[in-house]
Amino acid sequence: QMPNEVTIIEVGPRDGLQNEKAFVPTDVKKQFIKKLKDAGLREMELTSFVSPKWVPQMGDAAEIVADSLTEDTRDIVLAPNRKGVNRVYSTNCRAVAVFVGVSNTFNKKNINKSTADSVAEITPIIHELKEKGYFVRACISTAFYCPYEGKIEPEATLKLCKAFVEAGADELSVADTIGMAAPHESFALFSLLKKEFPHILITAHFHDTRKMALTNIYAALQAGIDRFDTSAGGLGGCPFAPGAAGNAATEDVVYMLDRMGIRTNVDLAKLIEAIDLVKPHITRSIESSYYQLHS
Ligand code: HMG
Ligand code: MG
């Protein structure tokens, strides 16, 4: 049973830009976020409160948040640790995404800790965030494959998801970090997660390294998933995951869903304007089919 409506979580300002080598001017990022909201995107990752030494592009997180929060939208920021969450507390942002990799090796490269140590650090932080009334999103990296460890067993992904659900997370965003999952794997894992966690928001996050993001999204739809992380222009990639290309492009996903009669409430013409605005400041080319046909 396909959903009638899908929620798109726009990750362009965060995942999309974090890997860009040249610093995108803060004002351009702010305008990009405004245009994306204007296009109807109601849930968005704005930026991350990570170490600016590790990810210089996100060094302007506080400024971005100060300018970008709006009512009736879910404006999310990433935070990897205590220091990051304390930085969030000095803003008015009310939704935090924590992130951990199923793969130990990847997690070590990304946040300099083993997966178990990360969970141990983040669990009490989630309790605290929930007590304070925050929305908590848990991003699960390398849920299918790891650039260092290869195939990840669904049981291992399930175990990490359980830890976050038990800690009180509102949402699981389950990621194919290096774009290596195939549709049958997408269907199998998301069917399993839907069955295990019927009362948790479950979101699929596909990178498009091997051009399988759209088919993986279709398979996840068939498994009952109605929330997808996508990035305008298909920008993105994790700096600590070699081989991670951009995310599924918002415009290609919205186009497919439109054609299937599934509502997203995203205005494609305005979305193109948002991409046009950021394009002069990024080094990679925009490869999404919809953008190439309509820009
Ligand atoms: P570390 O070096 O082990 O941490 O890094 P540390 O505690 O030793 O701190 C080192 C320095 O960073 C210190 O500064 C800290 O104060 C500072 P110094 O004293 O040397 O001047 N610091 C911070 N500054 C600002 N904000 C903070 C913060 N924490 C420490 N929060 C750390 C550990 C977690 C900080 C680092 O590894 C890090 O920032 N990692 C983030 C990596 C990242 O952003 N990756 C991309 C996002 S995840 C992703 O893209 C995947 C996803 O899209 C899903 C998918 O596709 O798989 C979500
Ligand atoms: Mg990602």
TrEMBL record:
EC number: 4.1.3.4
InterPro entries (alphabetical): Aldolase_TIM (IPR013785), HMGL (IPR043594), PYR_CT (IPR000891)
Protein name: Hydroxymethylglutaryl-CoA lyase
Protein origin, superkingdom: Bacteria
PANTHER family: HYDROXYMETHYLGLUTARYL-COA LYASE
Matching Pfam families: HMGL-like
The keyword Ribosomal protein belongs to this UniProt entry's keyword annotation: no
A GO MF term: metal ion binding
Keywords from the UniProt entry: Lyase, Metal-binding
